[in-house]
Each structure stands twice: as structure tokens, then as C-alpha cells.
Amino acid sequence: MNSFAEIIATIKKYDRIIILRHQNPDPDALGSQAGLATTLRQAFPDKKILIGGNDTEGLKWLSTAETVTDADYQGALVIVTDTANQPRIDDQRFDDGDFLIKIDHHPNDDAYGDQLFVNTKASSSSEIVADLIESCDELQLTKEVAYYLYAGIVGDTGRFLYPSTTQHTMEVGGQCIALGVDTAAINNKMNEITLQQAKLQGILFDNLQIDASGAAYAVIDLDLMKKLGINQEQANSVVSTPGRLKEVCSWMEAVQKDDGTFRMHLRSQGPIINELAKEHDGGGHPLASGATAQNAAEVEQMFEELKEIVTEYNQKGE
User: One MF term from GO for this chain (predicted)?
Assistant: First the structure.
């Protein structure tokens, strides 16, 4: 792994920098991407710095992408934030640049890039970007930069509820508050849902299958989304909902895609579930991962496997 000093040295060498993140971005992907782009633009106004990828409708209030041409990639430095593996990078031209840097906090199962900085103990990639800024006198944590990084940290810590939240996480958040970031507005925006999404939460509670072990799952198929008038992005907003139930320890939500396959969202309050995700074309954090199920039968298979994981966890008394 490379040091912050080595990454900064590489950044200084390039006049054109393209910053990418993962597909279907969450607040941390957008926050780390836009926060890094903003601090670099402020420090190096003569450099051309572009934010690539596809926009997520529900998060346009946080950040939007820019047009990046094939020509832009020629001779450019490409930096990818918050993306564990190459297939999930939200622009498959990422390797067309001259040099590639990975900045991430997920398990480093795919150690791509010419340079990489991965800290799995960090709450978020936004926290890592804040540390990168702190390490370099030429970069500044301004109010504008802090806005993006605070949103990313809040998003990936579940408003500081998840175990990944550390003293350092809170210190970085405190720095953002001290700079005058309207944290209440960010929190309120993230807490906002549509009436259709609220109805989906109610249906989710009704349809959630809960095993005696504490494992649970629910399926959100195309018919249900059509009935409620919501898309896959909006359906993803209820991923954390089952975790509010006392009876639920670990859970999966299967959101059907247009091709009939299912995007699997795995969450846990104790048992490690990312190895299960890896077995089904996915991966992620020990307690928060994603995977793909080709059909309903694979969804059922994954639930059986999840029950085994949770049962074993309970038997160990962890």
C-alpha cells in the first residue's frame, strides 16, 4: 500500500485528473469523490479535474457527474474512490488513463491500481479523504469540502450508529461542524423519503420472513415496484429498515432488476456476512455487503446459507 505522501506526489504530476466511484453511488461514494475533487480544485486551480460516472436521481442534491470524453482519459490521472473491485467502477474506461489510484475502505480483495490506499478501519472513504487533506499542507478542509465529506461519513455510519464509527470519525465530523456545515440539513435530506417509499416500508414489514435464529429476508420484485410507482434506486432506500426490529439479527433484501436477476443487499448486527456475498458474485464490508442472485431459487439458497451463519454465530454466543 502507498502512503498519502506518495499519492499527493502523483497528483502533483498530472494536469488532468478524473475522479470516479462505484455504480449506483451512495453518499460516501459521492461525498469522497466530490470532496476530493473540490479540495484539489481549490489547491491546484490550473489542473483540469473532472467528476465522472452516472447520476443517481435521489442524490443529485449532493453531487452530479460531469461529461468525461475519451480524449480526457488520454494521459490523465484516474482516481477511484470507495470502490472495492473493478467491475463496480462507474466508467469502464477507468483503465484508459495514464495512471490509476485506488482510495477505499472496503476489504482489499481486488488490489487494482498503480497506487492504492486502503484503510478498512476507516468508517468511510470520505473519512480517508479527510485524512489525506490533513496530511498535506497544500490541501485544505474548507466548508465546501467538508459538506461533501460530512455527508459521506454520515451516510456510511448510519448517522454514527454503526460499529465503524470511531473517536476519529467523530473528530472529523466535529471539524466539519466547526467549519459551519449545515449538518441538520444534510441529515434531514438523507432522512427524507417519498410517500411511495413509506408505503414500501410498511409492505416490507408485512412480508419480511424472520427465522427463529434472527435471520430475515424480503423480496421486492418488479411487480411490487410497478404497483407502488417506484424504481430500483428508491427500493434500495429501505435496506436498513429490518434492522430496527428487535427480532432481526442479520437480513437480506432482494431487489429485482429489469433483467430478472436480483440485487442482494446483506446487512448484519453481528454475524459476518461478506463471505456469503463473495460466494454470490459480490462482496463488501463484514456487516454490510452486496451480491447478485440470478433467480428466486438463488435468493432462497442465500437465505438458507444466511440462517446457517446466524445459527452458528448464536451457538458460539458471540
Answer: nucleic acid binding
Q: Are strands 115-118 and 283-284 parallel, antiparallel or unpaired?
A: unpaired
- Answer yes or no: CATH 3.90.1640.10 is held by domain 4-190: yes
Domain coordinates in residue numbering, the chain: 4-190, 195-316
CA distance 179 to 204: 39
Give the Cα separation of 264 and 253 in Å (integer): 6
Alpha-carbon span 34 to 177, nearest angstrom: 18
Question: CA 62 to CA 50: how far, in whole Å?
Answer: 16
Instruction: Output the pTM of the full model.
Output: 0.90
- Tens-digit pLDDT string for the chain (318 aa): 899 999 999 999 999 999 999 998 999 999 999 999 999 999 999 999 999 999 988 899 999 999 999 999 999 999 999 999 999 999 999 999 999 999 999 999 899 999 999 999 999 999 999 999 999 999 999 999 999 999 999 999 989 988 899 999 999 999 999 999 999 999 999 988 889 999 999 999 999 999 999 999 999 999 999 999 998 888 888 898 999 999 999 999 999 999 999 999 999 999 999 999 999 998 888 999 999 999 999 999 999 999 999 999 999 876
Torsion region of 175: left, alpha or beta (phi above 0 gives left; psi -120 to 50 gives alpha): alpha
Please, how many CA atoms are within 13 Å of residue 169, restricted to the half-sphere of its CB?
Answer: 23
* CA neighbours closer than 13 Å in the CB half-sphere of residue 199: 10
147-159 per-residue burial string, b: 16 or more CB within 10 A, e: under 16: bbbbbbbbbbbbe
Whose grid coordinates read 500500500?
1
Bridge partner residues of 266 (DSSP): 252, 289
* CATH level 2 (architecture), domain 195-316: Roll (3.10)
